[in-house]
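fyi for ur records
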Amino acid sequence: MTLSIRPIIDMRLRPPIPAWTRGSVFRTAMHYPRNLVSFKGARSAWLESLDLLFEEMDSAGVKYGVLMGRAASGAGNLGGVANREIVEAVAKYPDRFLGFLGIDLEAIPEGLAEVREFAKARNIKGISIEPGSGKRPRWCDDPSLDPIYEAALANDLPVSLSLSGLLSALGGHDISWSSPVSIQRVARKYPDLKIIVSHAAWPYASEMVVVALACPNVYVSPDLYACTAGMICADVYVKGANMFLEDRTLFGTAYPTKDIQDSLRDFLSMGYREDIIPKLLWHNAAKLLKIEA
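which gave:
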């Protein structure tokens, strides 16, 4: 398939700026799961060059990359990124980056204070948590997370729940913590809350698609797991989008794990219906995040 799609929103992109490269986040993304599969990685990532990244984004047609906040203290190799640095990055590059604020689930009151401080900052578009890979893993409907969901509603922000078996493993936990079943309970408890499932609860793809089918406020964002040719379970996300989730499936690359152009090329070869591809690459995310072309 050859399509000229402009523009694109990449729902999971970690740029080579100090907030990411200073700690373990960028290097962990670069080298895992590269030790298991043959991702060559982007030149901009190996050289940690922001200018090269912008060139690669332009070449692929990516207008915005979403900096998904991470505040995972004590969680294996995951590391964390300060929200203030995310706010500064999206303010410095407002035509390139959008940001989600991360909340450390071992310090929820402090995280909520930062949400109150930064929620109205330019290009801040949501809140990000990682229930299944924190220092103490939790199901998404753990009562301790209710104040986060309520803060998101109060600030009219979606919540990203990052769930995947690999993420749970990196956090030092078994893959069962990446199951999306508890998301259904959250979605029903908070029907006005927009929920993005980053990594789409891989490898629980079938369960994820069914939860999204049952809950109209749940968005599926498989990123790496549905833009990699031959990836296990990817066909389930594709079938879900083609059958009934065309308005709630989102594109992402998980850069720097994988080159942006390689990700887009693989994505376009996965078997998505051609008529819904503009929705997946731009319209769904733009509507959700209130972005105009």
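The beta strands are 8-10, 62-68, 97-102, 124-129, 159-164, 195-202, 218-221. thats all i got for now
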